[in-house]
Amino acid sequence: MSDRLTIADLADLYEGAAGAKDAMALYKLVAQVVQKRIGYQLFTIMRIYEGGEEVERVYSSNEKAYPILGRKTKKGTHWGDKVLGRGQIHIARDKAEVKKVFEDYELIWSLGVGSIMNVPVSFRGRQLGTMNISGTENQFGDADIRAARAIAAYLVPVLLSDYK
Asked: pTM (2 decimals)?
């Protein structure tokens, strides 16, 4: 997007996390940094329920299309096994890949989304949630992946304390 993630960005995330009065304040700060350094058409944060069968949306940059507290069952899918099971980043780089993975691809496309990066938020081998960055086709490069991993780490304490 604009510039690469900086030490100043990480310091701002730390200060925000340390002073956040509630989870939503931290989610909004994370969304701001992601928009500034990676960019998105849609940004959501999901928490995983114990056992990894269900995910619940706890933050959405577009609550009309993707409301908070919306739940999905993801266990037993390729995406679920990769992201929720093994804790690996998944990138759907173009509309064809988005369509293969996401049943709601028409809604996704209607928001101007042509690629999606799902970043697992993990701690001590446990998957806590995902940070989902949806952008234009072929948007995400190696620098974006590294930045997303670093930013996602700031979600660990709030998702861990909220672990269901």
From this structure: 0.92
